[in-house]
Amino acid sequence: MGTCRTSNNDCRGLSRSDPALLKGDGITHSAGSPHVDQIYHLASPASPPNYMYNPIKTLKTNTIGTLNMLGLAKRVSARLLLASTSEVYGDPEVHPQNEGYWGHVNPIGPRACYDEGKRAAETMCYAYMKQEGVEVRVARIFNTFGPRMHMNDGRVVSNFILQALQGEPLTVYGSGSQTRAFQYVSDLVNGLVALMNSNVSSPVNLGNPEEHTILEFAQLIKNLVGSRSEIQFLSEAQDDPQKRKPDIRKAKLMLGWEPVVPLEEGLNKAIHYFRKELEYQANNQYIPKPKPARIKKGRTRHN
């Protein structure tokens, strides 16, 4: 008998003797089985502090990891969906960003391990499609949030919510005029499933076109939490994109997909989850803190 609890997985009350587990109602076979016909490749560090801390591991995950998944897809004749990123557009000179835009990326900057790793992963997917006949789908995912996201991963949503709940200053890098567009996690999941089951082999943006400045976003979270936290302005991070907004006309037309969860509704769900986590962790003598502003020589960005 036992239970488990981690910062991003909730299985309280789940016993090792649970009949459902004993009957094998969970994962029952290896991904290497010929019965696999769809592979969702989402493996990669995605938080700036994490991939700046270990850029080599990030590059290996996005290159060697993708190569391994493509090899598996070829071997078992499965379709592979790559979770790529809006970061392939870098600090864009085209706004909003459509799938035909090649991007504006610093290949040797502090973010390059992630940005270029994903660009290389996309290239490998299409090389395998053309040379080996592997079916691929590529989702360029824009900023996403929701319950169960890591509370201390250093990204803007988790940072702002955690800071507001704990009465700490909300840290904004630069003037706060940078823009982002945030989608709720269930919208993203629906988009990924729609893309996987479609006939669209070219890249597709999955994101919410509702654009806000970082400062507006900080004020919104502060108000939703009911916090008296101040907003603290810090020096701007290197290579921080000034604008980020997806053009989702392709997803609408070819997948019949668009986000449906209003921003405030999604944020309230995330705030509720964070508040419950803080209560639980306080009882267990653990309170997460936002990641430090500086990781090695880089800084976190408004992801």
TrEMBL record:
UniProt-listed GO biological process terms: D-xylose metabolic process; UDP-D-xylose biosynthetic process
Stored SUPFAM superfamilies: NAD(P)-binding Rossmann-fold domains
GO CC annotations on file: Golgi cisterna membrane; Golgi membrane
Membrane topology: Single-pass type II membrane protein
Sequence ranges of Polar residues compositional bias: 1-10
Keywords on record: Decarboxylase, Glycoprotein, Golgi apparatus, Lyase, Membrane, NAD, Signal-anchor, Transmembrane, Transmembrane helix
Residue ranges occupied by any NAD(P)-binding domain in the UniProt entry: 35-269
InterPro entries noted in UniProt: NAD(P)-bd_dom, NAD(P)-bd_dom_sf, UXS-like
Cofactor: NAD(+)
EC number: 4.1.1.35
Region (Disordered): 1-28
Localization terms from the record: Golgi apparatus, Golgi stack membrane
Family according to the record: Belongs to the NAD(P)-dependent epimerase/dehydratase family. UDP-glucuronic acid decarboxylase subfamily.
Description of how the protein assembles with itself and partners: Homodimer and homotetramer. Interacts with AKT1.
Full protein name: UDP-glucuronic acid decarboxylase 1
